[in-house]
Amino acid sequence: MNALIEQMVVNGILAGLVYVIMALGFTLVFGIMRVVNFAHGELYMVSGYVMLSLYGQHQMNYYLAVVCAVLFTAMLGAVLEKLLFQRFAGDELGGMIISLALAIILQAGALILFGPDEQSMPRPVSGVWHVHEAVLSLDRGFVAIWAVVALAAFWLFIKRTRLGLAMQAVAQDRVTAGLMGIQSKRVSLIAFSIGSALAALAGALMAPIYTVSPYMGELPLLKAFVVVILGGLGSIPGAMLGGLLIGMTESVFATLFDSTVALIASFVIVLVVIVVRPRGLLGKAVR
Amino acid sequence: MKKIIFAVVVLAVAGVPLAIGGKYALHVGSMIAITATLALSMNLMLRIGQVSMAQGAFMGMGAYSSALLTMKLDWSPMVAMLASAVVVGMLAVALGFVFLRIKGVFFVLLTYAFAQIVNLSIQEASTWTGGNNGLYGIPKLAILGFRMVEPSAFYLCALAVAVLAWAVVHSVFRSRIGAILDSIEQDEGLSRALGTNALRWRVAVFGLSAVLASLAGSLFAHHLNFLSPANFTFLQNVDLLIMNIVGGVSSPTGAVLGALILVPLPELLRDAKQYELLIYGGILLGSLLFLRDGLVGRLGRLSFARRAVQTMREAGHGAA
Amino acid sequence: MALLEVDGVGRRFGGVQAVADVTFALQPGEVFGVIGPNGAGKTTLFNLIAGLFEPSSGRVVLDGTDITGWPSDSVARLGIGRTFQGVHTFKGVTVRENLQRAALLAHSFDPLRHFGNLMRRRSSVDVAVCEDVARFVGLHDRLEETAAGLSYGLKKLLGIGMALMQQPRLLLMDEPAAGLNPTEKRRLGEVIRDIRQMRCIDVMLVEHDMKLIMETCDRILVMNQGRPIALGDPTQVRSDPAVIDAYLGVDYDFA
User: Fold this and answer.
1) What is the pLDDT along chain A (287 residues), one digit of tens a residue?
2) pTM of the model
3) Can you list the pairs that B265-272 forms with residues at least 24 positions away whose Cβ atoms lie under 8 Å?
4) C-alpha pair distances (Å), B76 with each of B69, B70, B157, C52
5) What are phi and psi of A253, to 5 degrees?
6) Cβ within 8 Å, pair B281-A108
């Protein structure tokens, strides 16, 4: 029995860490731009395909490939922000629908360019590691380490750099931040780029572990969405807490029932949170 | 005079599938009629300023309910269809009292979560619904024992439902109810100060839209004789949104027009099916960037800045 | 019996006590004013009675019915109408349509019950009532104009007209004189008196304009820092030391 619980916990943490990365990008964009970015999952997918191309097909060094995938997607994000999202600054619903359109186009693009089939690439590491009575596959553990490093870097950025503090200011009160000389346009651009980069990181890391397909971004988007609602739209600590909680909840439900039930449970949580406490666990008061 | 021209055009367009004849043309015609009913369902919600992702879920509920009632309990399809619509409507009203307190982006997310729960539950309850493999062998539609084996008979049925749906939405918005709904959407604080229970009215509209969606779903089930959860996803809901944007939100005719334009599209693009998605996305993007009035103009009233100002006012100038 | 009884009403917002211990009774046929320096809690009190939020303590009773904590639409249906500080009208439609809508909304509380009835086309609301109210507030010659095109002062009058279409027993007015020029203010004062006299509707107004208050009100409640400090007719209030004290340093002409 103990082994089962330990395994659930380990699985939960591993999944949770990736969810946190996805959720952070999502919540950052919402917190600063007030946009629910439905295209977040497709950016994950784009990064996955870059990995497939560079690492899977052209045998580029794994670490270099990850960095390239992240940079490429971040730049793509910056371009999209400048061209599309900036027009809808302040318009929550409009921004959300634009992201919907974008998501559809990106997925359609992938379908046309690469076809609907799943493709795979070699794993960066293989083997397993025994943690107490639980089994941890090394490649997932590897991803977990990357995730923790990225989280630490992100935290330092937000709390210690001028830009990070500027972002917090804009997230809290756009108007006042503007009065203090912070250019929200620039901050939005950078926020969206970082958000894209985070999605890209998750995508690049997970691509070798599963497979790459035009639909691969749908589930991570769902998860990010669930985590962020639970943790609080716009709250960074919320995304971290929410990610681990959801990772854990899903692990339990998936082990006891099946993954579909786990997903249902997640959405029920979302429903309840929106109705009872829209600001989530750690978010700011809404409306 | 305008009305006569309108009626003539409608009759002419409606007659096209019958004129062309053949199973395929009537199939496309039926799908347009069914989708038009759904687009009208979405139109109702958009008119009161709420983007609802639940319409697909209501369609699915109507479809599976009607299918199972006819298959397992041997009910007449007509009765099953109507009964399902009533039940789905009542469920929508019950849920509506909870859901419709929420507005804007959160309402979208809420209905999105709801739709996912419905879809996933259908997948999970595979012993009843066939799950992801689908539900086969749904009987054809029948009115008073007369089975609609002929495609033309079904087409007329679907058309009748679509016309009825249009008429309902049209008259609701032309009537005093429309004035009330417009008032609530334009300035809720004022409407409430004048004595209107805004929530109840929104719930009523939500319920009506669910009834329409359910009817469309039932028709869908009895037409294709096969259902799967893949027919009722988020993407279908986005399609309905696109139809309304393209056709114009401010009138039910716009919704029908949107369906008329978009439904045949995949049929025409048979060979290049993957371009269908791209075109839909492109249309949505294009409409948002260039057709700023209409949907986005309407939704723009719910934008952050406006809402913030309205909230501040209503919170009673605490310090005064 | 008093039309409106406010008994020990108070309201906290987080750590701040915005309003405390407010007690008064509105008799039928009164114009009642609420004044006080900024931050006195007047608007909070106003919104408590109007149903925008619940009081943390105390009771509000309208003509024998306890309406404490009732939301604005329930309170409106029972007979309390209100006007807003900034003007709220339905901008895109005509003055006539605005007034018709007001009447319609006042009787539209239950969708089910009215569905059959309401499916009639829009224009059949009682035309005579509409014109009567328009004449009363002075907008009779502008019935077909769009509300958005009216001047601020006229919009205010339209707002009052709309509240009257509700046929309230008590009309709450939130700083009605704000933004009006002297001519418009005089007109407003006349309208308020007419509402009381000709229409037999009580008026309760929150105001900063002393002249308007002194000239139109029968009784005045003075608040300061959330609490009532004086209650009486204009003469009494004018000479009350506590009131003068509260306004010390501010250039108010009580004369």
Assistant:
1) 677 888 888 888 888 888 899 999 998 898 888 888 999 999 999 999 999 988 888 888 888 889 999 999 999 999 999 999 988 887 888 888 899 999 999 999 998 888 888 888 888 777 787 777 778 888 888 888 888 898 889 888 888 888 888 888 877 777 788 787 777 788 889 999 999 999 999 999 888 888 899 999 988 898 898 999 998 887 888 888 888 888 888 888 888 888 889 899 999 999 999 999 888 888 776 54
2) 0.86
3) B267/B28
4) 8, 6, 15, 51
5) -65, -40
6) yes
| CA-based nearest residue in chain B for residue A233 | B106
Q: Which long-range contacts (CB under 8 A, 24 or more apart) does B125-129 make?
A: B128/B68, B129/B64, B129/B68, B129/B227, B129/B229
Q: For residues B186 and C90, is the Cβ–Cβ distance under 8 A?
A: yes
Query: What count of other Cβ atoms lies within 10 Å of the Cβ of residue C241?
Result: 8
Q: For each of the domains in chain B, give its residue range(s) and CATH number, in order of start.
A: 2-319 (1.10.3470)
- Asked if C106 lies within 8 A of B194 by C-beta distance, the reply is yes
Rama region for B145: left / alpha / beta (φ>0; ψ in -120 to 50; rest): left
Cβ contact B113–A111 (<8 Å) = no
| Residue whose entry in the numeric block shows the structure tokens 């997607």 | A73
Chain C closest CA to B197's CA: distance in Å? 6
Å from B278 to nearest chain A CA?
5
Terminal Cα distance for chain B, rounded: 57
Q: Is the dihedral of CA A244, A247, A251, A254 positive or negative?
A: positive
How is residue A216 written in tokens? 């691969």
Ordered domains of chain A (ranges, CATH): 2-127+137-276 (1.10.3470)
CB contact under 8 A, A271 and B238: no
In sequence order, what E strands does B170-291 have? 226-227
